[in-house]
Amino acid sequence: MRLNKLYFLFFSLTFIQYLTGQSLDNPWSISLNSNIINLQGNNLEKGFNFGGPSLGISRHIGAGISLGTQYALGNVNNFSDTYNYTSFDGFLKFNLIKGSAIPYIIGGYGFSRFSDGIERPGFFPSTETSRTIFGGLGFSFNLSEFLAINLQSTYRNMNENDGFDHLQHLLGLSYNFGSTDSDKDGIPDKKDKCPGVPGLKKYEGCPDTDGDTIIDKEDKCPEVPGLVEFNGCIDSDDDGIADPDDTCPNEAGTFELNGCPDKDGDGIADNEDTCIEEPGPIENNGCPWLDGDGDGIKDNEDLCKNEAGPIENNGCPELSGEIVKTLNKFGARINFIANSYRILGKKTLENLTQIKILLDENPEGSLLIEGYASADGDEIYNIELSIKRAQAVRDYLINIGVAAERLEVQGFGEVDPIGDNENPQGRAINRRVQFKSKRN
User: Is 402 in contact with 413 (CB distance < 8 Å)?
Assistant: First the structure.
């Protein structure tokens, strides 16, 4: 009857729920148990002998395997005889499954002593002590992360005649410890996804400083409660862009402009637009192009935006046709001797002076000086000579006060003759310069 009650207790305990038990997270376990001895064999009293305590310590080494040692005390009755019971063993334990109740197999080797009370020398006197091999089954029911109920039964075989083969039943509590918790948040490092920072169990050891249910390491704004769609941040201006990614967090804008508005719709954000009320190109900082000199040509297309000029000359002023015609009257009197670009003669110098006076009276516009040559010499030589003649006129005009930037030269050699190259008089008038209004 007593045996039936014990088995009923054994199997009832398998329904106890638990959190976790001895594992690599809490590898060490100390157990304190009652020690129940049931003698086995012929002509022996088969009853249960309750005693104790039994003390054990073990270390989980992985794959469900633990190594340990245990020491047990008790009193055993065999009819009219009474014995003091002692056992000391080393054991190997293997957990069969993981779950709410963990069954395991245990086996080991040690010593068992049945003392009849007569004093004998030694801790385990050889006449009362026998080497023992044992093995059996057990269950562990974890009440918390650290505390568990243990129930274990083993058969112990005495290798010598000084004792009795017997069943040993242990029932008690074990305390599991040894886990590392670097941040002291109550979660072992091996289960803690943020082992260096104290956190919450529901977030597997990670903190949520702002309480927005997004752990700090995944929260772009860990100190401000935010939304999951914004990675823990807020959108102050409700434009669909989180504040950290929004260049203008307090003004609703567009994704294309990083959250900034564009009031005039010119594609330039207001914070970078000099003229937010008027559309304009980015090259002009968002402002429309003006016509500074009032010549009808926008400044961006006007090569002379501070001087009025015709569109044909890209907005730059030019010398009128009448002025150029007058200049060429003076230019027709500037001639050069054969194979020379030197400016000679009083009349030539007087004509150049008149050209300077006319340019001073008409300060707007630039002048192109074209040089020419007669048919004497080869073509390449004549082109080089004509350039030198135009350059000689330019140098002289600059020397007497004409602005250099108003004068440009070009040589054409013997093309476009105005005289007959077959006679000396024609070749003489072909060695000349002509003037044109220079256009940009």
Answer: no
Closest CA relative to residue 154, chosen from 70, 218, 63, 217: 70
The CATH classification number of 321-438 equals 3.30.1330.60
Per-residue b or e along 315-354, where b marks 16 or more CB atoms closer than 10 Å to that residue's CB = bbbbbeeebbebbeebbeebbbeeeebebeeeebeebbee
Q: Is the pTM of this model over 0.70?
A: no
Compute the distance between CA of residue 121 and CA of residue 129 in angstroms, rounded to an integer. Answer: 12
Q: Give the CATH fold of the 2-177 domain.
A: Porin (2.40.160)
Please identify which residue in the block is written with the tokens 């890209």: 314
Please name the amino acid found at residue 333. Answer: R
Residue 71 has pLDDT above 70, yes or no: yes
For 155-172, write each residue's pLDDT tens digit. 999 987 778 999 999 999
User: Is beta strand 407-411 parallel, antiparallel or unpaired with respect to 48-62?
Assistant: unpaired
59: enclosing H helix or E strand: strand 48-62
The Cβ-side half-sphere exposure at 363, using a 13 Å CA radius, reads 3
* Helix-helix angle 321-331:346-361, to 10 degrees: 170
Q: Where are the domains of the chain?
A: 2-177, 321-438
In 3-state terms, what secondary structure has residue 326? helix
The SS3 call for residue 273 is coil
Beta strands in 159-215, from DSSP E residues, in sequence order: 166-177
pLDDT in tens, 139-158: 999 888 789 999 999 999 99
Q: How far apart are CA 305 and CA 320, in angstroms?
A: 19
